[in-house]
Structures are given as C-alpha cells and as structure tokens.
Amino acid sequence: MKIFCIGRNYAAHAEELNNAVPGKPLVFMKPPTAVLKHDRDFYIPDFSKDIHYEGELVLRIGKNGKSISPKFALRYISHITVGLDFTARDLQDELKSNGHPWEIAKGFDNSAVLGEWLDFEPFKDAPITYELKKNSVTVQNGDTSLLLFPFEQIIAHLSIYFTLQQGDIIFTGTPKGVGSIAPGDLYQGILGDQVVMTCQVR
Q1: Parallel/antiparallel/unpaired status of strands 51-53 and 77-85
Q2: Which residues pair with 59 in a beta bridge?
Q3: Is pLDDT at 180 greater than 80 in this prediction?
Q4: 162 CB neighbour count, 10 Å cutoff
Q5: What is the pLDDT of residues 143-160, one digit of tens each?
Q6: How far, in Å, are 85, 105, 142 from residue 49 at the CA level?
Q7: Cα–Cα distance list, 54 to 44, 92, 127 (Å)
Q8: CA distance 31 to 111
C-alpha cells in the first residue's frame, strides 16, 4: 500500500499558510506506519510542540493502473472517506526554511487518520462536500468544486510516475481552517450526512 498526499490543493489553504499556489499537483508520501484507523486515539508525540490537524477527502484505488487518462481516472477509485493529515508544523517550518525535505513532519507514526470507507459510485457525478468538526464545532468545510487539481487530474498525474495499485490511498488536500491540536480534542469527519471519522487526541 502506498499513501499519496496532495499539498496546497485549495487556494485558500495555501494562502492561509503564506505558501505559493502550485502550478501542478504537489505530491508527497507517507509510509504505511502512518495509518491510524477510524475511532482510534492519537497520542501527541514528544518531538513536536505544534501538531496541526488537516481534514481531507481520501480516495482508495480499486484497480491497478499506469499512465491513466484523466477521462478514465474516476474508474480507478473504489472508495472514499474523510481523513486527517496530522502535521508537525514546527518541524515542517524549520525544514522548509533550510530547504530540506519534510517527510518527518508529515509521515510520522499515526499521522494519517482514515475514516470509514464508503463506496465511491454515489459520489462520482457531483461536487462532494464534507466537514471537519473539532469538539462539535465545524472548523473546516471542503468542496471538490474548489480543488485546484480535481480527482481526475491527481490520478492521471500520479500514474505518470507511479503504478497505482489496488489498495493505494490518496489524501486529496485540505481546505482552509487548519490549526493546532491539544489533548482532549475530538475530531469528527462528516461526509454527506454521515460521521465517517472520529479521532480523540491524547
């Protein structure tokens, strides 16, 4: 299983962190050990003083493909959910300022929270909206009509460089509204009218 992530895929999120808007998908990866399953607790690691939540739509690939045309790309998605891309923002800022890769700020253990998987078919023909709640208050609203790079373009772009395989996962980018986490926080990801992801911070 490969975990792909797309950075700065909502213009408003790039702006809130004073980052440039990319001209093509900005890709990074997380290792399989980053996965934290739905309804499991997240324990704040000792190496960071500023972990941020980033709520995202997450796709699961249903069949193998390489050099996929955008017009066929949606056929490769089997499931969808809401996830959390936990980011050690203090580490990331330090690494970026030195021109270094920032995998350790994104790919540490349990940094990729995955919600309950839903069949993608009912979602494929219209813009998808979702929300992330923190302690019962909505902190992020996502809408795929606002993606800089839609699902089709993401999959086509990734498949130029990587063979996409059944079970691979794609975090598609976070909207504005990211922020720091604290012990006791409860996060809920809502897709449609269903809570598909919960995560308690310890």
Answers
A1: unpaired
A2: 80, 170
A3: yes
A4: 15
A5: 999 999 999 999 999 999
A6: 16, 12, 27
A7: 15, 14, 20
A8: 10
The mean pLDDT value for 167-185 works out to 97
Rounded to the nearest 5°, which phi and psi values hold at 185?
Answer: -60, 140
Q: What is the DSSP string of 131-195?
A: EEEETTEEEEEEEGGG-SS-HHHHHHHHHHHS-B-TT-EEE----S--EE--TT-EEEEEETTEE
- DSSP class of residue 125? T
Q: What are phi and psi of 146, to 5 degrees?
A: -100, 0
The whole-angstrom distance between residue 162's C-alpha and the CA centroid of its chain comes to 18
**Phi, psi (rounded to 5 degrees) for 41:** -75, 145
- Which residue from 69, 96, 123, 72 is spatially nearest to 7, judged by alpha carbons? 96
The domain spans of the chain are 3-200
The CATH superfamily holding the domain 3-200 is Fumarylacetoacetase-like, C-terminal domain (3.90.850.10)
Residue 147: both structure tokens together: 């993606």
CA atoms of 105 and 92, how far apart (whole Å): 5
Q: β-strands 194-200, 35-37: how paired?
A: unpaired
Dist. CA 193–CA 186, nearest whole Å: 18
Does the pTM surpass 0.70? The reply is: yes
Largest Cα separation within the chain, whole Å, is 45
Token pair, residue 146, equals 């606002």
Question: Which amino acid is it at 178?
Answer: V
* Rounded to 5°, angle at Cα 81 from 191 and 66: 135
